[in-house]
Design brief:
The strands form 5 sheets. Strands 1, 2, 3, 4, 5 and 6 form a 6-stranded mixed sheet that branches. Strand 14 and strand 15 form a beta hairpin. The protein has 27 helices and 20 strands. Helix 11 crosses helix 13. The protein is of the alpha+beta class and 740 residues long. It is elongated.
Length: 740
């Protein structure tokens, strides 16, 4: 199996390989899976041997041996993070699936669906890195989606990145080293922190600083080495009386000093702009108690009492994560006390169980919570998924919502019944209401915080007891988006506002059409659309919302509609007979050309106008209607035709087009399609390319993912119109084209 390794790599591989087999064996046996573990090992060994012979474990982009990288990543996954069988299998099998030496279906069949799913997530992220892409919004978002599917994908990625950082000095390409270091600092260290992997987080930060600012890294390291003897002496002086007192109480414990990370010291130097010698909190004292879980809190507080009796505490620096653990499972008691020589010293007090969770994060937390396997997710991950499930959010918006939860401090607030909720710093009463339930948030009007009435924009503090006040008449408002800070609340508010707008439009439409029906009026959508535009509404949605808000009276609108129709048709209601009709001389400017139309008994040169209610064009089936302004030409399928034939049949005159086609006829088309600006561009492009055709006006309205547009086009005849309609229907995304 090691034939592809050089001499140094072989020396590192064999002991690590034996250690991995032993570690995995212990893990699986402890779960009662000894037989399955043995079978897995045999199948995995065969697949890996075959893959090595076929060259699947060659050198990666950075020149590192993939076989050794896979082994070391597996050890980190097991020993430093605490994952088990499935994660280890995924680490080994992912390169085989990537090299197409093994299919996801084969993995699923031989090792289970869980392993196949993790491998799928790993391959997706690996494909991004093959493109050598820097961390940016889309890459970051893709990683989050993978994280939402299975947290083990990210834990394995963190393990692999830790190995890369440990091996960075062997990577010859400086650009690759800088990229790896930057990503470790920007992405993987914060993720490790959020998942509770504090030891890994510190190592990633230190190694990142080492390759990004080697001069500063070496400076701090040399200073720490130079002051090590003095520091060790001080720690021993501080610890000695504590050991004596804790032992006298009969407590089992381990106590030691821990030097702060180089990265955290660098941050302090940068922020406070002080010299190294002025930093006094270079280390922390950790007391780890070996005690049963039922005695943990009481013994931790006992130890705290000993520390604060012996050394003066700073009351503002007490951090109690025993009573209220962090969302990643971290539990500990932190205090800062005045040690010998007037130096402030941080003391951390925790149990062995808590210490393991602090080292291995969520993986250890699941183990102690009794979760079987590796399939637990924390509350924070659930909130991330809720944001990701709504595709209407932009990538940048997702990143903002995520960063808010990733980097900000948390607060803890309680309901009157004592239920605990975790929220980001700066969260408001409104955020808390939506955290309880969407219905509670939507109906929230105020709250009582610690028995004091406060508005929904009030910012909560840790320890607040919050009693949400609701009203059945309350509805979400647009300005709530300026109050809410959590991703969940903002997403729910946007959804509610969109749903309310849709409901208002639907109710207004129903009301308007019911009133038209009550007055026995047939609505012409084309006429109504022109009336809406004339009244100054930019979109049809704005028009219906105005009706819903009672800004526009429906009865008055219907009267306006009837007047508008009357004005467009302008019929002459005095009784006149066609036989007594005397035609004026030549047609005026608004008339069509005399030789394009033949009226009644093959008469030409008669003044006529094309009706605005149906806009007939050359080639339409038409008829004439006698009015005081001459003859109006209508299409036979004009919406007003039935009424004209029924009430004013004696004014109807036969009409037909002559043999010569005219030019410049206006026709309106209604187009419905997917809400995509590209569709409008394609349609207008088609019109612009047609000879003798021009676009006169366009009006577009979008709603619920669809757009409806009205185009007015100038063209020659119905054959050109039919050809245009056919071409528009062929545009991708267009669902319907109809003539007004």
């Amino acid at each position: 199996m090691t034939s592809k390794l050089n001499k140094e790599e072989k020396a590192a591989f064999l002991p690590a390989y034996r250690r991995l087999l032993n570690s995995v064996g212990r893990l699986d046996t402890s779960c009662g899976l000894d037989a399955q573990a043995h079978a897995d090992k045999q199948k995995l060994k065969k697949l890996v041997r075959d893959a090595v012979e076929k060259g699947a474990y060659g050198r990666d982009l950075y020149g590192l041996n993939v076989l050794l990288r896979t082994l070391q990543t597996s050890l980190i996954v097991v020993d430093e993070i605490g994952l088990k069988r499935t994660a280890v299998l995924a680490v080994w099998l992912a390169p085989l699936v990537s090299a197409e030496l093994c299919t996801p279906e084969e993995v699923k069949k031989q090792f289970g669906e869980d392993a196949a799913n993790i491998i799928g997530g790993l391959i997706k992220t690996q494909q991004l890195y093959k493109k050598n892409a820097a961390i940016h919004n889309e890459h970051f978002r893709t990683l989050l989606i993978s994280f939402a599917e299975d947290v083990r994908v990210v834990l394995i990625m963190i393990a692999e990145r830790l190995y890369l950082m440990r091996m960075a000095k062997q990577i010859e390409n400086d650009e690759h080293r800088r990229q790896i270091a930057a990503e470790a600092s920007y992405l993987y260290a914060p993720l490790s922190h959020k998942l509770g992997l504090y030891k890994i987080k510190s190592e990633l930060e230190d190694l990142s600083l080492k390759f990004r600012d080697r001069e500063m890294f070496d400076f701090i390291k040399q200073k720490l080495n130079a002051t090590k003897t003095t520091r060790d002496e001080y720690i021993a002086q501080f610890i000695a009386p504590l050991k004596e007192k804790l032992t006298a109480l009969g407590l089992n414990f381990d106590i030691k000093g821990r030097t702060k990370s180089i990265h955290s010291i660098n941050n302090k130097l940068m922020k406070q702009k002080i010299e190294f010698e002025k930093i006094y909190d270079l280390f922390a004292i950790r007391v780890v108690l070996d005690t049963p879980i039922e005695k943990e809190k009481s013994e931790c507080w006992q130890a705290y009492s000993v520390v604060t009796d012996m050394y003066q505490p700073n009351p503002n620096r007490l951090k109690d994560w025993l009573s209220v653990p962090k969302s990643n499972g971290y539990e500990s008691l932190h205090t800062t006390v005045m040690g010998p020589g007037g130096r402030w010293v941080e003391v951390q007090i925790r149990s062995k169980r808590m210490d393991e969770i602090a080292e291995k994060g969520l993986a250890a937390h699941w183990k102690y919570k009794g979760v079987k396997g590796e399939s637990g997710l924390d509350d924070w991950l659930t909130n991330v998924r809720e944001v990701l499930e709504h595709p209407e959010n932009s990538s940048a918006e997702l990143i903002d919502e995520f960063k808010m939860g990733l980097y900000d401090e948390e607060i803890f607030v309680f309901t009157p019944k004592g239920d605990l909720f975790k929220l980001p710093q700066g969260a408001t009463v409104l955020d808390f209401a939506f955290a309880i339930h969407t219905k509670v948030g939507s109906k929230c009007v105020s709250a009582k915080v610690n028995d004091k009435n406060v508005p929904i924009k009030y910012k909560l503090q840790s320890g607040d007891q919050v009693d949400i006040q609701t009203s059945p008449n309350q509805l979400p408002k647009q300005d709530w988006l300026n109050i809410a800070v959590t991703g969940k609340a903002r997403v729910k508010i946007k959804q509610s506002l969109k749903e309310m707008a849709t409901q208002q439009v639907d109710l207004a439409k129903e009301l308007l059409h019911r009133r038209f029906k009550n007055r026995k009026i047939e609505v012409d959508d084309g006429v109504l659309s022109r009336l809406i535009k004339k009244k100054g509404y930019k979109t049809v949605t704005d028009f219906y919302i105005a009706i819903a808000k009672e800004q526009l009276d429906v009865n008055t609108l219907i009267d306006n509609y009837l007047e508008f129709v009357k004005k467009e048709q302008e019929p002459d209601h005095t009784d006149r007979s066609v036989e007594n009709y005397e035609a004026p001389g030549r047609p005026n400017e608004s008339s069509a050309s005399a030789d394009e139309l033949v009226i009644d008994r093959d008469l030409t040169g008669i003044d006529y106008q094309l009706a605005k209610c149906c806009h007939p064009i050359y080639g339409d089936d038409i008829f004439g209607f006698v009015s005081s302004q001459g003859i109006k030409i209508h299409r036979k399928n004009c919406p007003n035709a039935p009424q004209m034939f029924e009430k004013f049949g004696y004014r109807i005159v036969k009409s037909r087009w002559s043999g010569k086609s005219g030019t410049g006829y206006q026709v309106s088309l209604r187009i419905v399609g997917n809400d995509d600006i590209g569709i409008v561009t394609n349609v207008t492009s088609i019109i612009s390319k047609e000879n003798g055709m021009s676009l006169r006006s366009i009006n577009v309205d979008s709603q619920d993912g669809l757009f409806s547009g009205t185009l007015t086009v100038s063209l020659a005849d119905t054959s050109v119109l039919n050809s245009l309609i056919k071409k528009i229907k062929g545009v991708k995304g267009v669902k319907q084209v109809s003539r007004y």
